[in-house]
Amino acid sequence: MPHLEDIEIQLLLEGIYRYYGLDFRNYALASLKRRIWNTIRAENLTTISALQEKVLHDRECMERFLLNLSVHVTSMFRDADFYIAFRNKVIPLLKTYPFIRIWHAGCSTGEEVYSMAILLQEEGLYHRSRLYATDMNETVLRKAKEGIFPLELMQQYTHNYLQAGGKTYFSEYYTAAYDSAIFRSSLKDNIVFSPHNLVTDSSFNEFNVIFCRNVLIYFDKTLQQRVHHLLYESLIRFGILGLGRQESLKFTPYEQQYEALDVREKLYRRIS
């Protein structure tokens, strides 16, 4: 007999899908339960059914729930070795293209896309690149577009930048104003910020590079397969796919369609 909590979760997610068109039905259950109960406590409720009633009748509650449900753990030049591998193994390949399209899928508050803009500028490629930064959550997308981050994080970001092979002073890329760091507007010249849901939306372009890092771990196997299909269809032949450390192409239908450029840093090139 199904557990009552699981039935309530199914009804909640089905209601959200039918009313808002947002599909969380194939998210990994353990992580989902944690975030649902965090929202229940924050809204001073006691049951999942009560949360269902509130999110379906109160759009502001739905916005708060969406923020809790989305994962926004990010920082600039996070995983420095990944950026070093990208500089050494991918940049030489990109230099052979007259124009470069890059997709940051699930960009959150934008730290990764600004990191890549800086890296491309230092490698002399930014002027012929277009970066597409997408996320299903329009609240974090607006924050990403602003390019303003807490000044207190800049010491850590400077350390990350230098570890990642940065070629100048990190402080050259932002202006300090009160307790905020405002990044140079020129870094946004070739970035397009747009809502996109990996679960329900389709491909919208062909890309030379796709980053989908630390997103797939929150999906179940069914949803992971769907997203892998989307990523594969969105990459040009010999395009580059970057995944997170805990993510892999193993045991997917596309494992043989890629070659590994860097096994440890999860950089792959589509070969067929």
Automatic annotation (TrEMBL):
UniProt lineage: Bacteria, Bacillati, Cyanobacteriota, Cyanophyceae, Nostocales
Organism in which the protein naturally occurs: Calothrix parietina FACHB-288
Pfam families, A to Z: CheR, CheR_N
Coiled-coil residue windows: none
Entry protein name: Protein-glutamate O-methyltransferase CheR
CheR-type methyltransferase domain: residues covered: 1-249
Annotated PROSITE patterns: CHER
Transmembrane annotation, as ranges: none
Superkingdom in the source lineage: Bacteria
